[in-house]
């Protein structure tokens, strides 16, 4: 796991616990989008074999998370909502540089950082929940987002030199902390 520059705030956790239903609905949408993003990388880089294999697996796993979230929503009599703009992901994507190589590296690193933040947030949430199925579920989700971060980082390292990867990741992590701190506090994943 990369060292994220800052932990998520107490206020964020309180907002989530204060309107857990809203959080679950948003979380379900995030899993669906994560699966779609993995597939969009496949369609963008169809000839990069290692990437395609990794993204096919990732898309399946994120879709599985989405499915688990649908069951969870159903068990609470909740329904999916239309997606709202994800300011966090949009702001991070604005950091992606143009130019074939820079664009590719930044896409991998930004995707990896989103996974790392998911890991951190789901982990924090799990520890705040009562022992039981829901806590176990969030612990498991947190672990799998950590593995997803590692997948993107491994891909970046296999297509680019290590110092280039680490330097750019460090810059993006700095930006991520600024972006996170500027976000309104709401009961959503980001
Ligand atoms: Fe996921
Ligand atoms: Fe993930």
The helix-and-strand class reads mainly alpha
Report the sheet with the most strands, covering strand number, pairing sense and barrel closure.
none
Shape: globular
**Which architecture does the CATH hierarchy give at level 2?**
Up-down Bundle
Total domains? 1
Q: What portion of the residues fall into strands of 2 or more residues? A: under 5%
Bound molecules: fe (ii) ion
CATH superfamily: Ferritin, core subunit, four-helix bundle
Q: Indicate the low-confidence ranges by residue numbers.
A: none
Strand elements, count = 0
Distance between the termini: 18 Å
- Strand/helix succession: HHHHHHH
CATH class value: Mainly Alpha
Rg of Cα set: 16 Å
- Average of pLDDT: 97
The fold-level CATH name is Ferritin
Q: Count of DSSP helices?
A: 7
Roughly what percent helix? over 70%
Give an overview in words.
This protein has 190 residues and is mainly α. 76% of the residues lie in helices and 0% in strands. It has seven helices and no strands. The mean pLDDT is 97. Bound molecules: fe (ii) ion (FE2) (2 copies). One fe (ii) ion (FE2) is lined by residues 31, 34, 62, 65, 145.
């Amino acid at each position: 796991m990369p060292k994220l520059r800052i932990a998520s705030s107490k206020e964020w956790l309180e907002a989530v616990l204060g309107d857990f239903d809203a959080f679950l609905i948003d979380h379900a949408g995030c899993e669906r989008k994560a699966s779609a993003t993995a597939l969009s990388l496949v369609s963008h880089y169809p000839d990069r074999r290692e990437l395609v294999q990794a993204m096919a697996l990732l898309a399946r796993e994120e879709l599985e998370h989405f499915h688990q979230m649908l069951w969870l929503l159903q068990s609470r009599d909740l329904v999916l909502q239309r997606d709202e703009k994800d300011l966090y992901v949009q702001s991070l994507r604005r950091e992606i540089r143009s130019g074939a190589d820079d664009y590719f590296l930044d896409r991998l690193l930004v995707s990896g950082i989103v996974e790392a933040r998911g890991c951190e947030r789901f982990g924090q949430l799990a520890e705040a929940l009562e022992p039981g199925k829901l806590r176990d579920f969030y612990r498991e989700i947190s672990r799998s987002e950590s593995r997803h971060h590692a997948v993107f980082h491994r891909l970046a390292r296999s297509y680019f030199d290590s110092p280039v990867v680490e330097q750019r990741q460090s810059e993006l992590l700095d930006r991520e902390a600024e972006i996170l701190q500027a976000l309104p506090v709401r009961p959503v994943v980001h």
